[in-house]
Amino acid sequence: DGLAENLAAQVLAIAGNYSHILAPATASGKNVAPRIAAKLDVAQISDITKVVSADTFERPIYAGNAIATVQSIDATKVITVRGTGFDAAAATGGSAAVENAAAVADSGKSSFVGREVTKNDRPELTAAKIIVSGGRALGSAEKFNEVMTPLADKLGAAIGASRAAVDAGYAPNDLQVGQTGKIVAPQLYVAAGISGAIQHLAGMKDSKVIVAINKDEEAPIFSVADYGLVADLFEAVPEMASKL
Known about the structure:
Elements: H1 4-14, E1 20-24, H2 27-40, E2 45-48, E3 50-53, E4 56-61, E5 66-71, E6 77-81, E7 130-134, H3 141-155, E8 158-161, H4 163-167, E9 188-192, H5 198-204, E10 209-213, E11 227-229, H6 233-243
Parallel strand pairs: 1-6, 2-6, 7-8, 7-9, 9-10, 10-11
Antiparallel strand pairs: 3-4, 4-5
Helix pairs in contact: 1-2, 3-6
C-alpha cells in the first residue's frame, strides 16, 4: 500500500540506472522523495514548476511571490514536481518502456493498518476543472454549505475554502486551498468572501480564470482576479446560481 520506507527502497534498488528521479509534490511524494535523496546523499529539488535544462529548474519561493532558478550538480537529481505547474501530457504516444523490477524485501519499519477514505461525489480538489471557494465572511458552517453548495452543484464544481474558513470550522481541512493546503490550478476558480491573504493566493493564482466576489473593493484577491464583483456574497452567489 505504498509504504514510504518500502517504496523508497524499491526506487533505490534501481536508482543507479537513472540520472533523474521525479515524484509529485503531493503528501505521498513528499514522504518518499526525501528518503531517496538522503540515501543517495544528494540535495532534493522541491516543487518545481519549470524545467529549464537537464540540471536547472524553477521553483516558487516566498509563498509564490518569487521564482528561484535552481541548478544541481548532483549526479542524480531527486525532484518533486508541482503538477499544476505543467500542462497535462498526452495520454498516448511517447517512447518510454515499461519494465518489470524485482521487488525488494519488506523493510519491517512500518506496517499498513488501514485507510479511511472520505467519500465525495464532487471532483477531487486538485484535479477539478472548476472550483468554488468560500471564506470566513460566510460566517458559519451552515451558511457555508447553504451558499456555496448550490453554486457548486450548478457548475459541477469542487468546493474549496480559505484557511480562515477552515480554522473557524466552516469547512473540513481537506478543502483548504493555499500554501498550507492544496495547490490548485483549475480552468475556473470562484472565490466568495475570501480577502486574498498571500498564503491563499499562493495556492490558486495559477488558475486560468479567477472570479472574485467580495464587498471590500480593496481586498487583495482582486489583484489576481480576471473578473471582480464588489458585492454582498449572500446576494451575489445565490443570484449567480439561479441564473445558471
